[in-house]
Amino acid sequence: MIKNRKGEIIVTNEKQNKFLEKLYCTVGGRKVLRFLTRPFVSEFVGVFMDSGLSVPLIKKFVRSSGIDTSQYNMIKFRSYNDFFTRTIKPEKRPIDYDRNHLISPCDSKLSVYKINNDSIFRIKNSYYRISDLVKNEFLARRFMNGWCMIFRLEVDDYHRYCYIDGGEKTDNFFIRGELHTVNPIALKKYNIYKRNSREYTLMHTDNFGDVVQVEVGAMMVGRICNHHKEYNFVRGEEKGMFQFGGSTIVMLFEKGSVIPDRDILENTSAGYETVVKYGEKIGVKG
Question: Considering only Cβ atoms within 10 Å of each terminal Cβ, which end of the chain, N or C, has fewer?
């Protein structure tokens, strides 16, 4: 279930949810899933989505998803992926530059969880070890008693993401895995944050301490496109983008570094995700 920042319950992608229910919750669907989640399938689809043959899919997708095209720079797209990674008009996603404000890196549905003493966090009644997420026990221990923020993007969201603050980052670390959808329905059957392909970096930020950001690939999203390796960045600068499909960003914050906004914490506690936008305030400096 999802709420906006006004506290209103909203419904998104009902048709997609029904399809995923059949795919993940039936015997036949899971047989198909074993094939669809192989990386080579996602890579093949990626080649098609990069080609001019995929252009006819754009208009149909815009209609079915109800995308407000007035928010975007709608150029003559060369492929579906060219459209999928379209840029938004800057005035539609203003960046909050207050150094004490934590901003969202992307358009998404956000859930926030406290990391307990065993470095385990809970998402939709499933438990996930941070050490499994980053495959690094030492790094995982650093975030004990901190915050884990889950930003889930759906297919109609803006699929570019930005840096949440100024600072410097390490190189990107890629972990290959099976590619599953990040829709909550999938969480009933699979620990997707452990099995999916993902890429993470450690960011030394100016105002929020050390932060780990993990980009998680979803079904039919074989490519996570980060722009920089080791790099000095500024708040609001574009960090990267996902190509074709829904995806997820997971951010880990150290103890005492941030205080998430109350409405987001209350929504998560009640079982709701909160709609947030690229560059908007979601918390304050701890």
Answer: N
What is the total residue count of the chain? Answer: 286
Which pair of tokens denotes residue 80?
A: 């579906």
pLDDT band at 252 (very low <50, low <70, confident <90, very high): very high
Where would I find the beta strands (DSSP E) of the chain? Answer: 2-3, 9-10, 101-103, 108-114, 120-123, 126-129, 147-153, 160-162, 167-169, 173-175, 198-205, 210-216, 224-226, 231-233, 238-242, 247-253, 258-260, 273-276, 281-285
Helical axes 14-25 vs 27-36, angle rounded to 10°: 100
Q: What total of structural domains would you count in the chain?
A: 1
User: CB-hemisphere CA count at 13 Å for 37?
Assistant: 22
State how far the Cα of 22 lies from the Cα of 224, in Å rounded to an integer. 27
Active-site residues, by number, are: 107, 247
- Rounded to an integer, what is the distance from CA 2 to the centroid of its chain? 15
Domain ranges, residue 198: 1-286
Tokens of 78: 């060369």
